[in-house]
Amino acid sequence: MWPLRNLLEVKIRRAELQKARALQTYYEAKARRERKIKSKKYHRVLNKAKRKEFLKRFEEMVKNDPAAALEEINKMELARMQERMSLKHQNSGKWAKSKAIMAKYDESARKAMQQQLEVNKDLTQKLSIALNDDNEETETPENLPDFVNEAPLGTDSNPWMKGKLSEEPAETKGETHNLNLTAELTETAANVEEEESDVEETEEESLQMSEVCAKAAPVEESADASLQLVEGQTDQMQPLEFMELLNQVESVQPDQTPVEPRPSSDQAQKKQPKGITLKDTLTKDANPILVPLAPTAVAAEDSDETLTQTGLIQEAFAGDDVISEFMKDKKNQEDADKPSVVDMTLPGWGEWGGAGLKPSRSKRRRFRVKTAPPPPRKDEKLPGVILSEKRNSSLSLHQVNTLPFPFTSHTQFESTLRSPLGRTWNTERAVKKLTKPKVITQLGTIIEPMTREELMKDKKTINLLTITPHSKHLNKKKKSQVF
Amino acid sequence: MKVKVLSRNPDDYVRETKLDIQRVPRNYDPTLHPFEVCREYTRALNATKLDRVFAKPFLTALDGHRDGVNCMAKHTTSLSTLLSGSCDGEVKVWNLSKRECLRTIQAHEGFVRGMVVRFCGTSFFTVGDDKTIKQWKMEAPGYGEAVEPLNTILGKTVYTGLAHHQKEGVFATCGQQVDIWDEQRSSPIRSFTWGVDSFSSVHFNPVETELLASCASDRSIILYDMREAAPLKKVIMTMRSNTLCWNPMEAYYFTSCNEDYNLYTYDMRYLNKPVIVHVDHVSAVLDVDYSPTGKEFVSASFDKTIRIFPKDAGHSREVYHTKRMQHVICVKWSSDNRYILSGSDEMNIRLWKASASEKLGVLAPREKNAANYRAKLREKFKHFPQIRRIAQHRHLPKAIYYQAKELKAMKDARRRKEKNVRSHSKPGSVPVLSEKEKHVVTVVK
């Protein structure tokens, strides 16, 4: 039952409701209008404002309502995870591909693509701590101790990782390296003790509130005193892992005695990686086996040069047994050519045949056809040569198949090809004579037809057309082939 | 202490001036330069390919005629002058080096059927459909002068061909009969007839200058001697010859172009059988002209191509065609052996290079030697399949390509049928006729 009210209250209530409904409709209409807005500039401005507001709210939340802040952080982490899994903003979609085609010519297309990549970068950056200004120094990369980059030396299993990572490529002497190592170790030990105290504080805070990183707008950064917007430090600074490292370093420190005295005088071992000895790599005592080496020439140790050509080659191919491999190769080729025994047996034909049944041994013996041995290969007398008997199809493309028309024998044709015409094989004068064209004409002169005087120079040819007037026959005394 | 040193005389290895080339001591020992045949083969292959790469024969088209170009005449003393006559009676004088028309003369009403330049080069003759022979001056008329022929001869019948003697002031025309004219007379000094009432062309032999040949409409070629009263002999073929051309270097050979798509080279002395049958065109051959060296000739055909044949080969070595060039009516090989001129149905005269990939102009000695070497290599290795394949490949317009295939199929079918008929009939009843003999019907003396 409604509580009894007077008219006024009802009216007031109705007005309120009306107002509320009106407001609601205005709000909805506004939202509908705003949703329809497609203007890029408007959205850009709007997004900027939203981001600013978000940052402000976030900072307040951090101070006042840590739970909500945590939620926001979780949301960010979720977004990051999603981005990393789906790789949506990596310029790989249809839109990005179409933009890529235009990017060569269009500035705006290029910018759009870059913006997408930046979005990706934003989403995937890891949230890291930066709470107090005091801790800034410890967390800036320059002040990181050197051994951060060293691998965890917890186990002895990987002897290759025992030594220090090479810093200077110009380092050659073993002893100096040794000294360096030991010096650094002592340094790092000292550093660790200093840092520990500072880092522990931060550790606590990090444990309480997981790493925070506000989303940074690509263009502007609103730097607040309390919250530091950190970007791109994820590679170098991995705080949690960093903690682990520190712990490990502390534990391993006493174990770092086995920096061996390197054999300094042996120059051949210069090339080996530093700090590895045979003893460490072998897990158990192995029996030394004598391996017969292929007879090679005595490696002459030149005191002048250590890098002679022959010495190098010998060293490089010391393990290869070239001769036996060659022999194997030749034998393989010979065997491939040798036709094997052909088995011509057919099941059935005088005995039972069927699935799973083999013909009898006597029958098989009878039908094994031994083919004739192949003709002797051309390289039989030559032990160090393999002459391939196969027909090279790529050559036959270029070879003449049939004897061309004017020639009557193969030798004739080949003799025309044998002698070269070029300057490499002949003297200049010879080349000029050989390559002279059959007909040489002068540039710009009219070539007159043959005159009778020219024809008659050679007196052997008789003019077949000495026709006297009124004669009806042509003199056919001689058939001279002028053709 | 004795120290062994190298001592060389700089005179042996240093060049004398900086304008000389470096002295490169060469050792021609063959063991130092192995694989001669292989290396030269590769060079020949490359040369063939380059030859095709640089094969751009078309030079220019001379535009100006208002009707199809019917005949052309080479100037006997000037390489850069060309005369052309068109189907509307216009004669144009061209300067080939500037590629422009010097003069236009309205010579005849109707076709200009024949044109020839006199051996001295100062005047030229034209014959046309209006039954006249006109002689014109070669020089341009002075200011204000109208162009008038030096001499006009009116005839009773249409003249269809014109030829001039190589050395004397005598010319010949053909129409209903073959007439020999003296330049000073206005009536022919001699007329030849042999039962035919229509001759298509007449040509003087450039070497044996008293001899003439003409093509008649009864599918024959008739030989005359100017000094005789009657024709010498004639050969009747299966189809009509349009025109012919004498070889300027061989006294006895002429090549006639025929309606059956072939050209026939005859030895004047043995007309019973052509020396060579040149097969490659896919439509009637309309004109032929020999190269001044006598080694090749060019033929123009009703299929819209020009082909260059070696004088002793049955197939062409080169084909020129353009989309814009329609039926080629007349063709000439320039007197310096380098250019080919073609006049066609669509009122253009085209200038082509005779050897499509040669470089025009004066070549430096090295260029020339290199070109000679390449040419020689191509010739040496021309029998090799890869080189032959590249060297003989020419692009043809589709119509011509398909037509050629069709003709080949027809020819093969005919040959097969003949073979079958011969194998299934009494031996000896079907005689074996060579391709050459097939086209000659008879020789009449």
UniProtKB/TrEMBL annotation, chain A:
<feature type="compositionally biased region" description="Acidic residues">
    <location>
        <begin position="192"/>
        <end position="206"/>
    </location>
</feature>
<feature type="region of interest" description="Disordered">
    <location>
        <begin position="247"/>
        <end position="283"/>
    </location>
</feature>
<feature type="compositionally biased region" description="Polar residues">
    <location>
        <begin position="177"/>
        <end position="189"/>
    </location>
</feature>
<protein>
    <submittedName>
        <fullName>UTP14C small subunit processome component</fullName>
    </submittedName>
</protein>
<dbReference type="InterPro" id="IPR006709">
    <property type="entry name" value="SSU_processome_Utp14"/>
</dbReference>
<feature type="region of interest" description="Disordered">
    <location>
        <begin position="133"/>
        <end position="211"/>
    </location>
</feature>
<keyword id="KW-0597">Phosphoprotein</keyword>
<feature type="compositionally biased region" description="Basic residues">
    <location>
        <begin position="360"/>
        <end position="369"/>
    </location>
</feature>
<feature type="compositionally biased region" description="Basic and acidic residues">
    <location>
        <begin position="164"/>
        <end position="176"/>
    </location>
</feature>
<dbReference type="GO" id="GO:0032040">
    <property type="term" value="C:small-subunit processome"/>
</dbReference>
<feature type="region of interest" description="Disordered">
    <location>
        <begin position="352"/>
        <end position="382"/>
    </location>
</feature>
<dbReference type="GO" id="GO:0006364">
    <property type="term" value="P:rRNA processing"/>
</dbReference>
<keyword id="KW-0539">Nucleus</keyword>
<comment type="similarity">
    <text>Belongs to the UTP14 family.</text>
</comment>
<dbReference type="Pfam" id="PF04615">
    <property type="entry name" value="Utp14"/>
</dbReference>
From TrEMBL, chain B:
<dbReference type="InterPro" id="IPR051733">
    <property type="entry name" value="WD_repeat_DCAF13/WDSOF1"/>
</dbReference>
<dbReference type="InterPro" id="IPR007287">
    <property type="entry name" value="Sof1"/>
</dbReference>
<keyword id="KW-0853">WD repeat</keyword>
<dbReference type="Pfam" id="PF04158">
    <property type="entry name" value="Sof1"/>
</dbReference>
<dbReference type="GO" id="GO:0007292">
    <property type="term" value="P:female gamete generation"/>
</dbReference>
<dbReference type="InterPro" id="IPR001680">
    <property type="entry name" value="WD40_rpt"/>
</dbReference>
<feature type="compositionally biased region" description="Basic residues">
    <location>
        <begin position="413"/>
        <end position="425"/>
    </location>
</feature>
<feature type="repeat" description="WD">
    <location>
        <begin position="62"/>
        <end position="104"/>
    </location>
</feature>
<dbReference type="GO" id="GO:0032040">
    <property type="term" value="C:small-subunit processome"/>
</dbReference>
<keyword id="KW-0539">Nucleus</keyword>
<dbReference type="GO" id="GO:1990756">
    <property type="term" value="F:ubiquitin-like ligase-substrate adaptor activity"/>
</dbReference>
<keyword id="KW-0690">Ribosome biogenesis</keyword>
<comment type="pathway">
    <text>Protein modification; protein ubiquitination.</text>
</comment>
<feature type="repeat" description="WD">
    <location>
        <begin position="278"/>
        <end position="309"/>
    </location>
</feature>
<dbReference type="GO" id="GO:0080008">
    <property type="term" value="C:Cul4-RING E3 ubiquitin ligase complex"/>
</dbReference>
<feature type="region of interest" description="Disordered">
    <location>
        <begin position="413"/>
        <end position="434"/>
    </location>
</feature>
<keyword id="KW-0687">Ribonucleoprotein</keyword>
<protein>
    <recommendedName>
        <fullName>DDB1- and CUL4-associated factor 13</fullName>
    </recommendedName>
</protein>
<keyword id="KW-0698">rRNA processing</keyword>
<keyword id="KW-0833">Ubl conjugation pathway</keyword>
<dbReference type="InterPro" id="IPR019775">
    <property type="entry name" value="WD40_repeat_CS"/>
</dbReference>
<feature type="domain" description="Sof1-like protein">
    <location>
        <begin position="354"/>
        <end position="440"/>
    </location>
</feature>
